[in-house]
Every structure is written in C-alpha cells, then in structure tokens.
Input
Amino acid sequence: MNKIRIGVIGTGNMGRNHVRVAKNLQDLYEFVGIYDKNKEQADRIAKANSVTAFDELDQMLDLVDAVVVAVPSSLHKEIGLQVAEHGVHALIEKPLATVSSDARLLADAFTGKGLKLMVGHIERFNPVILELNKVLQDKTVFHIEGHRFSPFSGSGRITDTSVVEDLMIHDVDLVCHLMKDRKIRSVTGAGEHVQTPNLDFATSMLVFEGGAHATLSASRVSQTKERSYYIHATDCSIYADLLARTLTISTNANLVIDTSQANSYMQEGAVQKIYVPIQEPLQSELIEFHHVLTGDHAAAVDGAVGVRAIEICEEIVQKAEGGLK
Output
C-alpha cells in the first residue's frame, strides 16, 4: 500500500487530534511533521507526540505529499492557496472558507493544479451516518427533519459567527448528501439573536427537485444537547440519534396473523433498532483521504461540495437576518 507523506498545519484541538490519528495510521501515512505560527505551542505539541515542528510552513510543504489544514477558518484561504501553490494535496477542515467567494477560489486553485482537495465535514464519517447510508441505499427519501441543539457556552463555542455557519452547516451538508445530491429549488431562513450579536437559533427549509424537502433547526442556546434526524422514505421512517448512536427503523407491515382462528390479529408495523458500534469519525475520514489520494476518484466531500454548503448557509443567514429587520 502506498504510504502518503503527510503533515498537519495548525495545532489547536482539531489539529492535535489529526496528529494523534494520522500518526497511528502507520500503514497509510508517513508522518512528516507539524507547523503552527505559534512556535511555542507547536514545539510543545511536537514534543508530546514525538514529531517534528517546522519553523516555516514552506519547509514542511517541500517534504510532504499532503497536509491537513486545521487552522482557524479565517486563515483557510491564505494557507490553502499556499498549499496549492506548492503542489500539495489537502484536507481542509470545515468550513472550506468563511465566505463562498473564497471557498470557490480555493476549490479552483486545487482543481487548476490537478490536486485533490477534501473538506473536513466530519459528520459524514459519524458511524451512525455511515450505517444510515447503507439503510437508505435503495430507498427514496422525501423528507428529513434535523435537530442540532447545544447549551450556550461563550468560551466553548464559536460566537463570532452565526449558529448556521457554526452548527447547521453540518446538517446542510448531510441532508444534501442523504437526498442524493438533488438540486435545491428554494431555501428559507428564520432565527433569533439570544446571547450574541449573531443568530443563536435558526430554522430553515430546503426544498429539493422532485418535491422532497428538509427542515432544519440549530441552536447554541438550548437547555439540552441533541443531534438527531427523522427521515421519511417511501417504505419506512427512520430516527437517527447521533448521541445515543442508534437507528430506529419503522416499517408498515400490515400482516394478518393466523386468519383461520377467531382471535387472529393484524400486525400494523415492525420496528428495528440498530445500535451502532463506536468508531472514531476522524480515523474513518483520514482513511478515506488516503483512498482519495491513492485512487482515481474524487473525494465525496470535495471543493464543490464544500462551496455548496457555504452558499446555502449564506442564503439561510441572509433570509433569517432579513426577517428580523
């Protein structure tokens, strides 16, 4: 199996996790090192993980085939363009950029150089979503209802942008994927400012070609935490609980049991509950990144998909903010 020389740019929480996971995938990757403009932090992380910390980003880019870009979103454009200029493939954490115009610029830069670009929409690799993909493989979905709620934590969450770009973007990407990339006909948006100057609670409806639609709600000011989807298909309904790691599948059986007896009865439905094994999404994501780099197929979450998610979120925010005026 071809080993890919890889490095990680950025040593915050996500960057440190990428270092840990990539280092352990020794059959797939040769870990070259890390870079962070905060040299003191980079040296500390390098020492803790027994890896090399580079003083200059160009030094590392000269030695790798691919990098993970895990810097703050506001730096994705600058760092991503530098990576592409060096002819290096990249996995850039979501969102691809802070605005869709910058995201398109990045996507075009990698495509123009013939490089692979993957966007780190980590929920695609949630084990519940991976199992859900299998269940829905031969089914037609006509409605999805998504909930992503968290309590407010000013120090623990991003508050300089809206809940749409912070949280709902996961669901925007997932429902487009679960709807099998059908084109969107219309987008609505509504929301409230509760704790910050930006939207802290938001709802949206995405209407797809063919009449299917999705309703999404996201909050960072709720009293409870929830990550769930209700999926309605033509022959079943599914409740996916990402926190409990379960799928509950309901089907309409309409079976009449033992009609020869006076006490025969009808079974109106059947319920199947699937408990999904624990699997680290980041490991699945980095394994897929290796498959993309060593195969002849594009990433499922490529630059175009990353741009689409941002464009939809921008429209949701625009309409939600317009409704508050």
Q: What stands out?
A: The chain has a mean pLDDT of 92. The two ends are 57 Å apart (CA to CA). The chain has two domains: 4-115, 124-279+310-324. The chain has nine helices and 14 strands.
